[in-house]
Amino acid sequence: KAAIGRLAASLIRDGDTVLLDGGTTTLEVARHLVGRPVQIVTNSLPIAQLFATSQSNELVILGGFVYPRTGVAMGPLTIRMIEDLHVRVTVLSVGGITEQGLFNSNLLLVETERAMMRSADEVVVVADRTKLGRPALAWLCALGDVDALVMDESPGLARPDWLERSGARLHVASHEGKIAGGAA
Question: How far from each other are the two terminal CA atoms of the chain, in whole angstroms?
Answer without folding.
Answer: 20
